[in-house]
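Reader question, answered in our methods column.
A reader sent in the components of a multi-part assembly and asked whether the whole thing could be modeled at once rather than chain by chain. We filled in our standard form and ran it. Here is what they sent:
COMPLEX SIZE: four components
ENTRIES:
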Amino acid sequence: MNSIVSLSYKELLAEFKNILKQNQLKFTSQREIILYTLYNNTQHFTSEDLYMLIKQEYPELSIGIATVYRTLSLLEENNIVSSISLGIQGKKYEIANKPHHDHNICETCNKIVEFENDEIEELQHTIAKENGFILTNHLMQLYGICKECQ
Amino acid sequence: MNSIVSLSYKELLAEFKNILKQNQLKFTSQREIILYTLYNNTQHFTSEDLYMLIKQEYPELSIGIATVYRTLSLLEENNIVSSISLGIQGKKYEIANKPHHDHNICETCNKIVEFENDEIEELQHTIAKENGFILTNHLMQLYGICKECQ
DNA sequence: ATTAAAATGAAAATCGTTATTAATTAACCC
DNA sequence: GGGTTAATTAATAACGATTTTCATTTTAAT
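And here is the structure of the entire assembly that came back:
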């Protein structure tokens, strides 16, 4: 499982094609446009968001909501996108083509600011160890009111 | 908004009655039993879990799943219970009558271990501040494999 | 006790997501 | 390039969790 961090779109596309081939899956225009759209929009999308954007940007493309769900799952399984669960707002996806980070979320305007903190990452490992857990993953979301909404 | 941490059941019940009165809501046996059950079971419940347990423990009580959903929402709005969103497993509720803590969750058996770490809490405030946010809340879940499942 | 407002259970509706299906398309072979 | 086969698709049905609707019951204040 290679990291895709900082790949160019061309490299990312090649990586995706490799994964498809290895799994005897096919490269389709729907899959390409989903990847392309995620690459060029670093925001966080729900499946519905992404579906609506693609419908709007590519009116000639035939695409169904089920395909968006299927493709996002496929991309997530292969670590090309990652997701966060935002309670009432549902699951949001973002391209994994950036370093690990957590999220600072505005409760008023839903803006998401990404951050990274090594000290917390270390503490998380220590805590898990104390509890007898092997840490495999974590979720950290800081909710608040952003500067513009205060 | 007072903290209910460490209240006795009697005090908690009085607090709940106050909240109801202030909002012109009524005190019912269903609401009382839901609160009582949460108080005496510090585990994490889905709405369905709680509904099943109450049906079993109080067969003479008429209660519907919709009432459980309604009451848990009401209790959460008033900070008497808190909830965590566990991705595929759905939303789980616990009584808020205990000090703040986060959750260490086993991906195999779904066991939840609670922990508290002041250092992380402090860092979270620092990070939010750096991002221009006023921190109102946070979510931290550490996923891993527990000792028994390793 | 009377009465008005709120709460209830049961069932229907809704929401986000997944599975089914028949038609289409990509990939491989010649 | 055309033929073949398996994968993919869009549309729609199905699904599970949650919410709403509504007619009936219960609470709380008089």
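What stands out: Residues 24-26, 28, 30-31, 62-67, 70 of chain B lie near DNA strand C (CB under 10 Å from a C1'). Chain B touches chain A through 34 residues (CB under 8 Å).
Send us your own complexes using the same form.
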